[in-house]
Amino acid sequence: MTRELSREQLLGFLAEMVLIRRFEEKVEERFRAGELAGFLHAAIGQEAVAVGVCHALGPDDLMASTHRAHAHVIANGTPPNEVMAELYGKIEGCSHGYGGSMHLYDVGRGTMGANAVVGGGLPATVGSALAFHLRHEPRVALAFFGDGATNIGTFHESLNLAQLWNLPAVFVCENNRWSESTPQSQHQPITDLTQRAVAFGMHALHVDGQDVETVHLAALDAIEHARSGRGPVFLLCETERLTGHYMGDAQVYRDKEELKRLRETRDPITSLRERLALSEKDWLPLEAEARRVADASVEFAKAGTDPKPEDALKNIYVT
Ligand SMILES: Cc1ncc(C[n+]2csc(CCOP(=O)(O)OP(=O)(O)O)c2C)c(N)n1
Ligand SMILES: [Mg+2]
After folding, report:
1. What is the torsional sign of CA 73, 78, 84, 85?
2. Which atom of ligand 1 is found nearest the CA of 174?
3. What is the pTM of this model?
4. Which one in 85, 101, 111, 262 has a CA-CA gap of 20 to 30 Å to 201?
5. So where are the chain's domains?
C-alpha cells in the first residue's frame, strides 16, 4: 500500500478544508447577525481531522459526531446546503429542521448524528459495531469525541465493551486540550490520552491532527484493522481549537499571544497550502469556489421552507 497521497488527492483535501473553514466563518457571520438560534460550535483549526478521517470511511460505514459537528458532517458527504438549511431550521435541512447545529443527522450518508451530550455518540457507535459484528457485515462504526469526553463514563463503558467483544469500531479523539474554558491540565491527570485506550488493551495510534495526510493514512490503517476483525482502534489526533468553544465566546480565559502563535504555526490549511507550494493563481479560484458554496448555502437555506407548527410533535414517540 502506498504511504503517500498524490498531489491531486491532497489538493482535493485542501479544497474541502477551505470549504469547511469558509462555511464555518459564514455560519458565525449569520449567527452574529441574529439569524441562527441556539449554541453553535465551530471546528476552525480541526478541519484536517474531519477530512482525513471521513475520507477513510467506506460507503457502508457509520460515523457519530459531537457538538462540534459541521466539519465532520460536511466531510462525510452532506452537502453544505443541507447543513446550512438545518442551522436555519428549514425542512430542507439534513434533520428536516428538527435538529439544528448539535443534532445534524444524515444516516443515508453514514452520519449517525451530531450529539449535544458529550460522549453521547460512543454507545451508539458500539451498538452499531455490535450489529455489524453479529450480522457478519464488513462495516465499521466510528466515533469522534474530544479530550473532555474521555473523562465521561460512556467513554470508558464503550471502549471496555468494544474491546471485550472485539468489535469493528474506531474511536477518534480530537485532542484540542480544552473542555469548554477548562484547559487539559485542570481536567486530566495525563496528557498522553492513548493510555486511556491501552488500559482496555486496545490498539492505539497517535498522530498530528494538523497534517491531513498523516491523519488520513492513520485512519485508513485504523479502519482496516477494525474491518478485518482484529478489534477496535483508538486514534488520537493532536489538534488545535483556533477559535472559541462556542460562537460568541470571548475567550477571556485564553492567552492571546499563545492563540496568535497557534494560528500562525498550527493552522492545517496554511501548512498544507505551503507544502503544496500553491501559487496565487492556483489558490484564488479554490478559495473563491469555497466562498461561493458557503454564500450559496445561505441563499438556499433562506429560501427554504419553515416547518409547520402543527408538525412539531411529529416523530415523537409517545408511550
Ligand atoms: C454530558 C455532558 N456534560 C457536559 C456538557 C457541557 N459541555 C458541552 S461541550 C463541553 C466540552 C467538551 O470538551 P471536549 O470533549 O474536549 O470537546 P471540544 O469542545 O473540545 O471539541 C462540555 C463540558 C455536555 N454537553 N454534556
Ligand atoms: Mg477538547
Report:
1. negative
2. 21
3. 0.98
4. 111
5. 7-303
